C-alpha cells in the first residue's frame, strides 16, 4: 500500500489555447491517481465546503479516502496558474492555502503500517510531522514547489533529511540549492541524506542521482500536450507505484528497477498532460499504459 499526503486542489489553469476554472487538481490528487494503477493507494488530505461531490466520488472510486477530511467552515486549497506558448513555463497567479493552512493531518489507524509514503507538494512542516505518525515506514519520498522553498526553505531541507528520496523539478532544485548547475544541485540534494534524488526537466526528461551515479533519462516525445499541470506529481505517483509493485522489499537497492520506474513515471506524466486536469488519468487504461511504456523502451533501446 502507498499512502499519499499532500494538496487536493481546485485549480484554475490558463493556457494560450484554453482556460479551465476550478477543476480538480492538487499534487496529491495527481500522484495518487497515477499510483493507483499499480498499487492500492490511501490518501490523506483536506478539502473545504466548496469541493464538489463529483470530485469526491472520483477520488473515492480510485483509492481509499478515509484520510480525506472535509472542513465545512473553510475553502479548498486554490491554485491559479498560466502557461506560456511553449506549454512549459508556468507563472503562478494565485496560491490560496485555505484549508491546508495549519491543517493537522491525522493518519487513520488503518494506514499506520503503510511502508511507503509519498509526501506530495505540501507544507513541509506538516510533512515532517506526519512521518512520525507511521509505525515503520521504509520508503519515504517527497516533492516540493517554489512556494514552500520561498516561504519555508529550512523546513523543506529538514523534510528532505527525513526521506529516502526526493523528486523535484529543475527550477525548484536551482532555487532550493541556490545553484544554476543541476548536477551540483543533485549532489547537494543527496548531501541532505536521501538515497536518491530525481530532478525533473519537463519534456527533456530527468536526472537521477543515486550513490555516485548520475543517470540522464530522456523524456517521452509527446505530440499532444494540453495542460502540463500535474506532470511532476503524476510522474512521482507512477514512479512510486511501479517501484513498490515490483520490488521485493521497499529498500532502494535495485538501480535497474529504479530506472524502469522512472520510465513508467514518465509515461504516467504524459497521460496526465494530454488532457486538462485529471481527465487524462481518468480515461487511460492499464493496456494504454503498458503500450506506451513498451514503445518508450523500444525508442530508448532498453
Ligand atoms: P505540478 O504541475 O506537478 O508541479 O503540480 C501542480 C499541482 O500542485 C497543482 O494541481 C496545484 O494545485 C498544486 N500546488 C501548486 N502550488 C502548491 C502549493 N504551494 N502547495 C501545495 N500544492 C500546490
Describe the structure.
By secondary structure, the protein is an alpha/beta fold. It has a single domain, classed as UDP-N-acetylmuramoyl-L-alanine:D-glutamate ligase. 38% of the residues lie in helices and 24% in strands. It has 11 helices and 13 strands. The protein has a 9-stranded mixed sheet with strand order 5-4-1-8-9-10-11-12-13, sandwiched between helices. Helix 3 (124-131) links the parallel strand 8 (116-119) and strand 9 (139-142). The mean pLDDT is 96. The structure holds adenosine monophosphate (AMP). Adenosine monophosphate binds next to strand 2, helix 4 and helix 8.
List keywords for this structure.
single chain, 302 residues, alpha/beta, UDP-N-acetylmuramoyl-L-alanine:D-glutamate ligase, 9-stranded mixed sheet, 11 helices, globular, binds adenosine monophosphate
Amino acid at each position: 500500500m502507498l499512502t499519499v499526503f499532500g494538496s487536493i486542489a481546485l485549480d484554475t489553469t490558463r493556457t494560450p489555447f484554453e482556460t479551465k476554472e476550478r477543476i480538480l487538481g492538487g499534487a496529491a490528487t495527481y500522484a495518487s491517481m497515477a499510483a493507483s494503477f499499480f498499487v492500492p493507494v490511501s490518501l490523506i488530505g483536506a478539502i473545504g465546503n466548496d469541493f464538489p461531490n463529483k470530485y469526491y466520488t472520483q477520488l473515492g472510486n480510485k483509492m481509499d479516502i478515509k484520510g480525506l477530511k472535509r472542513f465545512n467552515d473553510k475553502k479548498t486549497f486554490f491554485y491559479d496558474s498560466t502557461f506560456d506558448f511553449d506549454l512549459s513555463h508556468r507563472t503562478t497567479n494565485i496560491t490560496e492555502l485555505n484549508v491546508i493552512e495549519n491543517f493537522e493531518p491525522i493518519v487513520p489507524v488503518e494506514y499506520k503500517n503503510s511502508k511507503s509514503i509519498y509526501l506530495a507538494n505540501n507544507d513541509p512542516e506538516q510533512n515532517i510531522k506526519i512521518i512520525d505518525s507511521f509505525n515503520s515506514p521504509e520508503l519515504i519520498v517527497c516533492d516540493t514547489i517554489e512556494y514552500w522553498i520561498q516561504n519555508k526553505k529550512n523546513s523543506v531541507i529538514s523534510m528532505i533529511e527525513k526521506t529516502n528520496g526526493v523528486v523535484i523539478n529543475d527550477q525548484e532544485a536551482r532555487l532550493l540549492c541556490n545553484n544554476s548547475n543541476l548536477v551540483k544541485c543533485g549532489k547537494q540534494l543527496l548531501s541532505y541524506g536521501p538515497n536518491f534524488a530525481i530532478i525533473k526537466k519537463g519534456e527533456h526528461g530527468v536526472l537521477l542521482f543515486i550513490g555516485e551515479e548520475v543517470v540522464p533519462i530522456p523524456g517521452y516525445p509527446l505530440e499532444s500536450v494540453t495542460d502540463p499541470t500535474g506532470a511532476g506529481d503524476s510522474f512521482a505517483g507512477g514512479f512510486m507505484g511501479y517501484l513498490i509493485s515490483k520490488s521485493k522489499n521497499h529498500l532502494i537497492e535495485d538501480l535497474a528497477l529504479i530506472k524502469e520506474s522512472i520510465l513508467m513515471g514518465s509515461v504516467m506524466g504524459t497521460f496526465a498532460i494530454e488532457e486538462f486536469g485529471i481527465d487524462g488519468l481518468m480515461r487511460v487504461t492499464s493496456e494504454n499504459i503498458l503500450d506506451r511504456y513498451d514503445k518508450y523502451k523500444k525508442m530508448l533501446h532498453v
